[in-house]
Structures are given as C-alpha cells and as structure tokens.
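User: Could you walk me through two proteins back to back? I'd like the raw sequence and the structure tokens for each, with a short line separating them so I can tell where one ends and the next begins.

Assistant: Of course. Protein one, sequence then structure:
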Amino acid sequence: MNKFLSIAALATVSLMPTAAMAAPLAWLVPTPNGGAVYFRNDTGAALPNASLISQSGLLKDAFSLLAIPGTIKDDSEFPFAYTYLNLPVGDHFTGYTVKPGTPLVDLTFQYRIGSITSPLISQSLDIPEPSSCLLAATATLAFTAAFRRARSQGN
C-alpha cells in the first residue's frame, strides 16, 4: 500500500505545472480548408520573430494570415514564408495558411529568443496527438486497479 501511495504521489507531482520556461512550438491541424497553424510562446517574454517556412512554397496567400495583437506580421515572402515580429507569450492561431495535402516535412518553424540578432532556431512542426488523453486515462485506470487489488488482498 505504501508503495502505491509513493508512486501516486510521484505521478501527481510530475504532472503539476511549473514556472519553467519552455521552447516555443508550432503545430499544424490539417483541415479540408487547409492546414491551421498555431504558435505557442512559453518563454516568458515576447519572441523577436517567429516564422513558418515552406520549402516548396505551399503556403496559401497573405489573406489567410491572421493578425495577432501586439505583433507586426510580415507576409512579403508568401508562398514560401511568413513572420510575426514581437510574438507575445501564449497560444496564437495564425490562420488556415497551409495548402491542403502539404506534407509535414515541407514545413519548418523558426524563431529567435532574446533579440532579433540572437541565433535562429529551427524545428519541425508537430501534429497534436489525440492519444495523449487516452494514455492518461489508461494510467489512471491502472492505478485504480492496483489500489483496489492491494486493498482487497489486505482484507
């Protein structure tokens, strides 16, 4: 029983939110209208720039790029790239900016932290994984079953 409580406490503490800085992130949600692109800035300060790059020029057009309050958007490099300057902290929807059927490997997220002269950091885009919730639910069921089994063996 004590072992179970220790594991449960450790799992609970590991899931608690922290104030640590995280790397910026971009993800794509494929839709029939085109790919919806989201940027996340968890660094604690505005990003000097955040860009989406398409190596093959598969971005739609400047009209699909949404304004984000507090930023300056640069759409001069469409259909190959677009940039937001001074991207604030939080999650931001940039619009349905990617043509339908664009392969994920064609897209790159680039950003700078600190200042516009900081090194450029590149990363691939992600597609959200809906199975994460299923994984968490399975772990909860496993802990519940282990607890009930330990409890029934104790009686």
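----
Protein two, same layout:
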Amino acid sequence: MSISDIIVITTIILLVPKLVEKYLGRYGFVREVRMVIMFGGMLWVALSCGHESMHWVIGTADSDAVKFESWWYPMLVKYMESGNHKDLVGKLLTPGRFFYVTYQAILYYYTGITVISILGINAFMAFWGGLTLTRLIYSFSALQPPRRDVLPLFIIFTPSVVFWSSANLKEALMYWSICQVLNFMMPARTSNGENINFGLFALGAFLGSLLRPHLIIIWLFGVLIIKMFQPRFWKYLIVIILLSLLVIPQIDKRFGLGKLVKHPIASVVAYKESAEWKYRQFVMRAKMRPSIGSTFTYGGGRPIPILHGAINSLFRPFLWQVRNLRSMLTGLEIWTISLCIMFLWMRMTAIEWRSILRNPLIKLAILVCIPFFLFFSYTPNEGWIARQRVQMFPALLIMLSIPVLQRRYYISMGKIKTHRFRKTIHITQGQTC
C-alpha cells in the first residue's frame, strides 16, 4: 500500500459519515440507524482493500481484471509517456473494457495509487448508490422510518452488491450510475435539489453508457417513460436531447441503435439470432472445458424468451443443484429476495393492489424487469448471471421494499387492522398512499 493509497482510503472513509447525513439525515432516519449505516459503510470500504482474501474463502478470483490490465496497460502507458492524448482519450471514450482499464491506468500513472485504492473507490461508489436508492424508496412513503427499521440496512448492504462492488470490476461504478439515473424519479423538495438530481442523472447516464451501454439504456428508457408524465419534466427535455447526443453514439457502438430505428423488425430478428448464437457458444465452451461447471442448458432445446430469463434472474442457482459455497450463498440470497417479493405481493389486499400499481417506482421496476428477463434468457451461466444481476437489483429491491412501506402506512392509517390470532381487513374512506 502506497502513501497515495493511504490518503485515498482515509479520505473515502471520512466522507462516509458526511454522505450518510446528507442522504438520510433529513428523511426521518433515527440516529441509531444512521450510525449503523456509517460504520457499515466504513467497514465496507476497509474490507474491500482485502477483497482477495474473500475470493480465497469462497473460491473466486478477479481474473478478468488482471487479464485485461496485463493486455492493455503497457500500451496505455506508452500513450501517456509520449503525450499521445488523442489516442488516450479515444480509448477512454470506448465503451466497455477499454474505458474501465484506461480509467484505472490514468489514475495509476498520474496519482501513484495501486489497485487497493481502486477497490476502495468501487466500494464507496456502490455504498453511495445504496444510499441514493434507500432515500428514493423512502421518499415515496408518507411515514418516517421506525426506530428499529432494518430494511434500509438490507437495501444498502445487499450481499451480492457488497461482494461484486468490492472487486476490481465494473459492477460498482455501474451500480452507482443506475442508482443516479433512477434517482431522477425522486420528488425534489426544492428546485435546487431537483437540479442536483438531474445533474447526477446526466452523469450517471454518461458513465453508464461508457461502462455497459446495452444495460444502462434499459434504465434510461424506463425512467424517462415514467418521468415524462410527471410535472415540470418539459424543462429538462432540451438538456436530455443534448445529452442524448453524447450517450446515443456510445450505445450505438455496442447496441446497434441506428439499425434498430431504421429496420426494427429485422433488427429484432437479428438480435434473437445473435443471442441464440451466443447461447450455443456458452454451451459449446462448457463442453470443451468441463471445469466450467456453472453453465447449464434448457434440456437440449432453445430458451423461451422472458420466461426462462425470469427463472434465471429470480431463482438461479437452484438450491438443490449447488456445488460449492459461493453457489449456496448466491442461491440463498436470490431465493430469499424472490420468495419474499412473492409473499408480500400475494398477501396484499385490494386497496393495496390499487395503490401499489399507481406507484411510479413500481411501474418503473416492472418496466425494467421485462428487458432484463429477455437479456438473461440467453445467459446459460450461473456465475455470469450472479454478477450481472447486480444491475437488476435496484428493481428487485424496489419491489421488495415498497409493499412493506405501504403496509406500514395503511396500518398506521387504520385501513388495515391486525390482531394476534387473526387478521381482519378494514377499508375506510380517505386518501390512499
């Protein structure tokens, strides 16, 4: 660990309490909960510096990060040493792996930090994203959080988000980008707060388009479709159009957006064929390399779009097929989240159903899940699903949290009364949540 690493990590840890107070201090979260979140955030940053030890425990490795750095870092150093800033900026603005590796190379070269600082920055950014998501979810609740509320702890410190965002991978920055894009839905109390939210939305959209443009576009379209029906959206429309001139070219490089607009039917057919080809490549690679035990098939047939993707997203790995500790932990987490969502939604009353389907966050979560289900239909690798599913977690956490907060509201209003041995539902007249 270099002196630069010590300065970076210390600065990040000192920023955690400030960030928690800014995001949660004014929204009714009691001091005890905020203190736990502060210590949790500082511990997250500190433990991320020793992420390799966790890899050793559960049997994983940052192989992609090491491989790509060894391939491209020497070339990027030559650009910086020779003052070839044109090619350096060109690599920095290339979506995907080139952007992430170039971003790291610039920090390494000009600041003297090592990968330890990169891990700390990743953990801090994901923690920031979790705070943003928590504040957004609670802003759609009319009640202040109770004193012993553990829900924000789960939203912020979701195990998969903590693990994958503490690695030398794109997941942390992508998670932050998604949460900032999603935060544009937040009803700001002042015009200044609304402008700040929009600024972070623009930054998140641009960063996400450089990391994984084919995934950030799902969240962008979802947020803008819901947001356009809200008041005062028109004043940001011009800025969004100008921003799209920066974002769309990045998405087009990876997603072929121009072809989709000109020839939508042919593009959909081409995408389906390409996705099926990649699916077959996954399966063939697994047959050639038996050590890849996390690849699965659909019984020799082709995947059913969306249906198989929903199963993969919500229930892979299957608990009765786990082969090691990491599969068991991943399976327990996603099964717990999915079964809790199903239970919470199945027990809702008629008044709760009417209210929750009018909630903008729920509309957005449902809208976003559909393309993710399509995306995961052609991903027959449980390890890859576990990692990429982090980008879908904000939608799942919304669908888990909103029913809980809504039930609390109706109980406090007397519209739902619970008893010790039996439950009676009483629907009264009044304003719904």
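The CA atoms of residues 70 and 101 lie 10 Å apart.

Let me know if you want the two compared in more detail.
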